[in-house]
Amino acid sequence: MAKSSRNKKALTKMQGVITAIIVTVAVVAALAYSLSLPAPSPSPAPSASPTPLQSPILLATTTSTYDSGLLDYLMPKFESKCNVKVNIISVGTGQAIETAKRGDADLVLVHSKKLELEFINSAFGIHRVGVMCNDFMVIGPASDPAEIKDLTNATEAFKRIGDKGAEGKAVFVSRADKSGTHTLELNIWSTLGVTPSDKTQTWYVEAVNSMGVVLRMSNELGAYTLTDRATWTTFKSQLANMAVLVQGDKTLLNPYAVILVNPEKYPQRNYKGALVLAQFMISEEGQNLIAGFTKEGEVLFKPIARNLELAQNLGFPDQANELGWYDAQKP
Question: Which pLDDT tens digit goes with each residue over 97-152?
Fold first, then answer.
């Protein structure tokens, strides 16, 4: 009995030793296998978020800069130079500024001093600077029933159109879209004490549309309208019934400004991209490109950013300071 007990103890001890040996061999084998495997490749670092300049820039601007072909000429040069995409919203000045006020644009290129200053004074926009100018003209049917041809006073021309309109002998088509063109038109009527409306004056047509559409409507109706020179030059080959009748009045000068959207109000906007685009447009390179943009041999926009006297005369009293500010910025 005692011998049997000793045998069982010896067997149990031997089984423990065997188990320990098996476990040790398994551990050593696993370690050897792991050492034979290639080292794992390090996980790639997460890609950095795009810098503001890499993000597309959203420019809200007037139909005249777009319809004239200026932006199709200018923006590819900027995009190539700075390796960034510019997306364009082409509407009237009023709509462009409202778009920016909603935080849906990075900067504006517009042409209505009244609306621009309201944009600045409400703190939605910052750093208004003059970029370029062209001029407005009164165009109308070659038959000219209001007899305004060769007048040099736009207000007198409007008076004659209104008088003939009241007699049923003339029609005027308004953009009626709160654009810079529409704002100037209303200012001229206002000096005459006239508040035109298609609800009270049958001779007054409110198109609520772009300059290109208004030109075609005027051509079809044999009507007068106010247009900027750049859009007229672009479309005039399609306007067989229309002629330039009044031009050269200082009232009809048409300056354009660039204004940045205030990053304190809309920190999500691409302020850095907007700044770089504005700097390009007012730089010597950008100004030379604007001066070189022509249609049928005619220069459509005159650069004013670095012509301080002209800019001040056109309604930019702080042009020197703003130009200095832009030139000093390092995006």
Answer: 999 999 999 999 999 999 999 999 999 999 999 999 999 999 999 999 999 999 99
Q: Are 57 and 277 in contact (CB under 8 A)?
A: yes
CATH of domain 52-133+255-328: 3.40.190.10
CATH 3.40.50.2300 describes domain 135-251: no
For residues 19 and 279, give the distance between their C-alpha atoms in angstroms, rounded to a whole number.
80
Whether the full predicted model's pTM is greater than 0.85, yes or no, is: no
Nearest to 192 by CA among 244, 144, 141, 157: 157
Alpha helices in 54-176 (DSSP H): 63-67, 70-82, 93-101, 113-121, 154-166
**Residue 70, strand partner residues:** none
Residue 323 vs residues 73, 98, 129, 131, 162: alpha-carbon distances, Å: 24, 25, 7, 10, 42
Beta strand 86-90 pairing with 57-61: parallel
Helices (H), the chain: 2-36, 63-67, 70-82, 93-101, 113-121, 154-166, 180-191, 211-221, 229-235, 271-282, 284-291, 308-313, 319-328
User: Strand pairing partners for 108?
Assistant: 60, 259
- CA trace torsion 307, 309, 310, 312 (10° rounding): 110
- List the chain domain ranges: 52-133+255-328, 135-251
- Least Cα distance to 217 among 176, 174, 249 occurs for 174
**Are 52-133+255-328 and 135-251 equal in CATH topology?**
yes
d(CA 112, CA 184): 8
Could you read off the pLDDT of 140-192 as tens digits, one per residue?
Answer: 999 999 999 999 999 999 999 999 999 999 999 999 999 999 999 999 999 99
- Which helix (H) or strand (E) segment is 261 a member of? strand 253-261
Please give the backbone phi and psi of residue 205, each rounded to the nearest 5 degrees, phi first.
-110, 125
Question: What are 133's strand-pairing partners?
Answer: 255, 302
